[in-house]
Design a protein that fits this description.
Number of strands of chain B: 3
Distance between the termini of chain B: 57 Å
Order of helices and strands of chain A: HHHHHH
Oligomer: heterodimer
Number of strands of chain A: 0
Shape of chain B: elongated
Largest sheet of chain A: none
Number of helices of chain A: 6
Distance between the termini of chain A: 41 Å
Largest interface: A-B, 50 and 58 residues
Number of helices of chain B: 10
Radius of gyration of chain A: 17 Å
Order of helices and strands of chain B: HHEEEHHHHHHHH
């Protein structure tokens, strides 16, 4: 029951940034609801798989693969390129804080001097950013890499 | 893929027109943030649908080069590509025109007219300010912050989005824009830490700058590289890294002013 509440809460609060960023990307109005649904499902699924012990990188890969296939269905139904829904849906999972922590560590290392603790911050956050990002975009690309090899989807 | 129309002879003038139309579609797609594979597929399909035998496209970070072939005759043209901001509605519309041309519902002149008529749709800016404020506030909630963190993040990132729009409207360099915006967002949210609002005021400082993560270029970068456009992938990745770096510079400057390190500890 607790898990269910956690998931619903998680999905609700992930749908808002999916729509917010979809509006920054000027996704057509009638497609915003798809961004919200895909964003909620993706983030919720990632939280669920992480709850069962999957590391964040693999959880991101699984979640965006799911978004990728959902996007595939919608894109063929509405004749609209997939990134229109899938990228906005993946935005709540982007490792923004890790990325900024990496860069801030670098800036701090220059101004405040080198310490092993800072180096650790930079490398750990940098690797997290890199691996999560690769997992996210690779997951979105899986339908076109595995199934539609070289063929257009719409 | 090759339509029936490829058997119809093309005059040199007609082929030139088709070449220009195909590259116009590609240019629109790249200016509004489509990934390279989509640009390549759409221009090729459009050109072939209008009667060329094949279309070859070279995509690079700031220009497109396109050659159309018909019975051994090549026509090549180049277009500069200026970034006009991500706009998925434009990408959808260009794609739709391409599909219609493929179904032979449009002739070359119609396609050209339709492409010229496309206007980028923009959401009401105050609605975007509100939604981005809520989005970053949602992130602070997902990180585990309470309602104080939510409120501080909302104010900081909504103000930041307003500043970002103002600077973008005045055509300021995106690196400067992102640094200034990150500075203001961090400055506002650090008051939460100074006055110790709520349980985790540092989370608001982390969440309020998330409107500046270049998510679209980063995802496009990896997806370009996965699909074989290594050059474009590297270019996009570099641009996104520089943007991230200017955001970090903005955050760092604000932290220096207020002397609140917040989430970097």
């Amino acid at each position: 029951m607790d898990l269910l509440f956690l998931l619903v809460d998680d999905m609700f609060w992930a749908a808002i940034p999916a729509v917010g960023f979809a509006m920054v990307f000027n996704v057509p109005k009638h497609m915003l609801v798809y961004c919200a649904v895909a964003g909620a499902i993706g983030h919720g699924f990632r939280t669920l798989t992480m709850h069962f012990g999957l590391p964040i990188e693999w959880a991101s890969l699984v979640a965006t693969t799911l978004i990728g296939f959902i996007g595939l269905y919608w894109s063929r139904k509405h004749l609209i390129p997939r990134p229109v829904f899938t990228v906005a849906a993946a935005i709540p999972m982007i490792p923004g804080s890790y990325a900024f922590a990496t860069m801030l560590g670098l800036v701090e290392m220059n101004s405040g001097g080198f310490t092993y603790q800072l180096l650790q911050t930079v490398i750990e956050n940098g690797l997290k950013t890199l691996f999560i990002l690769i997992a996210l975009s690779f997951g979105l690309a899986i339908p076109s890499v595995l199934i539609y090899r070289g063929r257009p989807i719409v | 893929m090759v339509g029936l129309s490829s058997t119809v002879p093309l005059t040199k003038q007609q082929q030139t027109e088709i070449t220009r139309i195909a590259i116009k579609a590609g240019q629109l797609l790249q200016q509004h943030g489509a990934e390279s594979r989509l640009i390549e597929q759409t221009t090729t399909r459009l050109g072939v649908a209008l009667g060329a035998q094949s279309i070859e496209l070279a995509v690079s970070a700031d220009a497109l080069v396109l050659t159309s072939l018909f019975e051994g005759r090549c026509i090549t043209t180049t277009r500069k590509v200026h970034d006009r901001g991500i706009n998925m509605q434009m990408v959808c519309d260009v794609q739709r025109i391409c599909v219609m041309a493929e179904k032979q519902l449009l002739r070359a002149a119609d396609v050209n007219k339709k492409l010229d008529k496309l206007k980028p749709m923009k959401y009401n800016r105050w609605l975007v300010v509100l939604m981005i404020g809520l989005s970053c506030a949602s992130f602070s909630h997902l990180f585990g912050g309470d309602w104080w963190a939510f409120a501080v993040t909302f104010v900081a990132s909504a103000t930041a989005m307003f500043v970002r729009q103002e600077l973008a409207h005045r055509h300021h360099n995106p690196f400067i824009n992102f640094a200034v915006t990150a500075f203001i967002a961090t400055l506002i949210s650090s008051f939460g830490v100074i006055y110790q609002l709520g349980n985790r005021p540092d989370l608001a400082m982390a969440a309020c700058v998330l409107l500046l993560v270049p998510g679209f270029p980063l995802i496009n970068a990896v997806s370009d590289m996965v699909k074989g456009h290594i050059n474009m992938g590297i270019a996009r990745w570099t641009a996104a890294t520089l943007l991230t770096f200017s955001v970090a510079a903005g955050i760092f400057a604000a932290m220096g002013v207020t002397n609140v390190m917040g989430w970097l500890s």
